[in-house]
Task: inverse folding
């Protein structure tokens, strides 16, 4: 395991310090910092203007949110409030497929990727279909997006097992009766390395099954069964928040406003994951206190199912006006990190003022 103690403002890429990250960490331009947080397209544009050596879009946005709290002026704290209000009731469903667009990972230390289809085909009804291999809700799985009148749907899970840690190729074919055939192939033999063949080698699905959303909450029945939600109820946990906009769709208890520890945890969780734009599921991996988060771009689940990125959190220090929350993430062997989120109480509210990566593996 490689251990590193580093503040986000000190992170470096292989070719040197990050100028945009350093600028964010020292800026007093409240309007600019707020726009980085609230306007994701603008944050991507700022990243692109400075090339790849900038710390990453998601990291810059979280650092801007932290900087606003650290400034601590009435103007900057009001900006924090506006950012949180903007994000509070956002959808946790994936966005429509946008080939060539970034696909963000929820963990700060994990690299991001580009959305590229594994296969595409034209359908008899005039639509197009594209298959993707994504790991948003656990081990890699097949997802399907459909294009109609020039617009793509959001990627939906397809009920098919895939071998893990193996490169899989897909051939896609439209069939009569609204069905699709997926033919899978794996690594070719190389020297003394045998060929690896996915199981099954091919499978068929009905488009109606992939698209079915019985309860009308935006999640397909397939995804809800996979995530442990109730595909027959638009509000699985009965808390009055529909699953499509519920940051914790399987946890119905809402915290009281005067529950200070819950407020601290919820604010720290938002600072770590709320500005990543990652649709991936987060799954609480231990007995971390259950809280109802806000502003997450993907669902957070309290389940023992092997889905999503495993996370933990706990308050490790707290005084009348300061607190530290340790948040960890685990994607697999040699893919995990631990971060200390520092908070300060200003008036009656808690604000994140620092995030420091303690270790990474």
Result:
């Amino acid at each position: 395991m490689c251990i590193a103690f580093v503040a986000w403002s000190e992170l470096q890429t292989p070719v040197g310090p990050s100028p945009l990250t350093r600028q964010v960490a020292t800026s007093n331009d409240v309007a600019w910092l707020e726009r980085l947080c609230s306007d994701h397209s603008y944050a991507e544009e700022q990243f692109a203007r400075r090339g790849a050596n900038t710390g990453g879009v998601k990291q810059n946005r979280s650092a801007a949110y932290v900087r606003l709290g650290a400034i601590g002026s009435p103007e900057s704290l009001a900006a924090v409030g506006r950012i949180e209000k903007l994000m509070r009731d956002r959808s946790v469903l994936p966005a429509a497929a946008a080939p060539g667009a970034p696909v963000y990972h929820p963990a700060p230390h994990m690299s991001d990727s580009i959305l590229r289809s594994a296969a595409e085909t034209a359908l008899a009804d005039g639509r197009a279909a594209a298959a993707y291999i994504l790991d948003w809700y656990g081990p890699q799985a097949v997802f399907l997006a459909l294009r109609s009148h020039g617009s793509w749907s959001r990627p939906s899970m397809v009920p098919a097992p895939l071998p893990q840690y193996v490169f899989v190729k897909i051939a896609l074919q439209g069939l009569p009766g609204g069905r699709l055939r997926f033919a899978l192939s794996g690594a070719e033999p190389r020297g003394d390395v045998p060929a690896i063949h996915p199981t099954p080698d091919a499978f068929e699905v009905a488009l109606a099954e992939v698209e079915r959303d019985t309860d009308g909450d935006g999640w397909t029945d397939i995804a809800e069964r996979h995530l442990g939600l109730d595909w027959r109820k638009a509000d699985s946990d009965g808390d009055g928040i529909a699953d499509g906009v519920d940051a914790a769709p399987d946890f119905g208890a809402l915290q009281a406003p005067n529950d200070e520890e819950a407020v601290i945890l919820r604010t720290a969780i938002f600072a770590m994951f709320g500005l990543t734009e990652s649709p991936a599921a987060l799954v609480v991996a231990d007995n971390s206190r259950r809280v109802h988060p806000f502003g997450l771009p993907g669902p957070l689940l309290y389940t023992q199912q092997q889905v999503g990125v495993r996370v933990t959190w706990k308050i490790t220090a707290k005084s009348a006006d300061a607190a530290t929350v340790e948040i960890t993430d685990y994607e697999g062997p040699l893919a995990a990190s631990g971060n200390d989120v520092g908070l300060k109480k200003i008036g009656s509210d808690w604000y994140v003022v620092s995030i420091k990566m303690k270790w990474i593996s």
Notes: Confidence is low (pLDDT under 50) at residues 1-17. The chain has two domains: 6-93+250-360, 111-206.
